[in-house]
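Input structure tokens:
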């Protein structure tokens, strides 16, 4: 199987040779594209997971920015920050989201509750309402490849984590008909590194997992591609660097497991607490 990383036909027959072409979307982060054999396969839903402040939103900004620069359309759903905060953050990395909005290549759906009543605000954290507004945005943006970010999906199941799988499956199923390539952010608790709700990782075609740890008194962030269907991706962990004016870059991480794992005593406490909790379930 030969993979070609530019948009051509999905199947080409040349004499006796079958060439399967996987069209890949650059993430906008060079190092990450290299890990992913060129980028994220078109039409995939990729879970971007990790603890607070690890770089999930910034990766999503790169993904949208790269798409619009190369002629795609972008939809950014923000549940954790306001539209203005997203615009300000993008500006710090020289991404001109204001211009993309004006040009009609980007729509930012603000789902931060109760803020305003404009056309692109989500009135409630309801997955049904979310997909309807995303489809409306796609129609408005018109013809072309569409990149979608949902930052974050955790907000939709915060008070009912058991629905995580159901909701993410619903969103994937409905939006798959609309030819989106999707980054879906999901958050992990800082104390236990547990997801708020399980299931997205199984539904997703890929998982980009961010992590954080303290080494020699300094916060380090790192990233590992835990899954990417149809891609022989790197299994290594990379350090995530975030710089003003530049954004996110990756650097190979030379570390030991002990540097990123929780101490054994803490892990044991967590396991014990979980066992106690399970005992309470009738
Ligand atoms: N202009 C900047 N220059 C350098 N570093 C920055 C800049 N802006 C943000 N950062 C770094 O990026 C971090 C935030 O990254 P990001 O918003 O992507 O996190 P996140 O994983 O989305 O977190 P959350 O789950 O809380 O939304 C900040 O804590 C800061 O360390
Ligand atoms: Mg974020």
């Amino acid at each position: 199987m030969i993979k070609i990383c530019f948009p051509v036909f999905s199947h080409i027959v040349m004499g006796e040779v079958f060439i399967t072409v996987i069209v890949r979307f650059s993430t906008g982060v060079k190092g990450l594209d290299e890990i992913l054999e060129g980028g994220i396969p078109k039409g995939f839903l990729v879970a971007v997971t990790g603890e607070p402040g690890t770089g999930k939103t910034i990766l999503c900004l790169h993904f949208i920015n790269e798409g619009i620069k190369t002629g795609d359309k972008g939809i950014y759903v923000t549940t954790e920050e306001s539209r203005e905060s997203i615009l300000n953050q993008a500006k710090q990395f020289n991404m001109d989201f204001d211009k993309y909005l004006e040009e009609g290549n980007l729509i930012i759906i603000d789902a931060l509750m109760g803020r305003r009543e404009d056309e692109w605000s989500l009135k409630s954290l309801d997955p049904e309402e979310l997909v309807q507004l995303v489809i409306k945005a796609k129609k408005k943006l018109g013809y072309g490849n569409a990149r979608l970010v949902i930052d974050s999906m955790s907000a939709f199941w915060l008070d009912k984590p058991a629905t995580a799988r159901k909701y993410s499956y619903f969103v994937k199923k409905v939006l798959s008909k609309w030819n989106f390539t999707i980054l879906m952010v999901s958050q992990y608790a800082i104390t236990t590194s547990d997801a708020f709700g399980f299931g997205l990782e199984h539904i997703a075609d890929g998982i980009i997992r961010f992590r954080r740890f303290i080494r020699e008194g300094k916060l380090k962030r790192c990233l590992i591609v835990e899954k990417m269907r149809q891609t022989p991706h790197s299994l290594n962990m990379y350090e995530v660097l975030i710089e003003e004016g530049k954004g996110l870059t990756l650097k190979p991480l030379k570390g030991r497991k002990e540097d990123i794992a929780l101490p054994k005593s803490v892990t044991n406490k967590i396991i014990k607490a979980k066992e106690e909790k399970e005992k309470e379930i009738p």
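Confidence is low (pLDDT under 50) at residues 1-10. Residues 56-57, 80, 151 surround magnesium ion (ligand 2) (CB under 6 Å).
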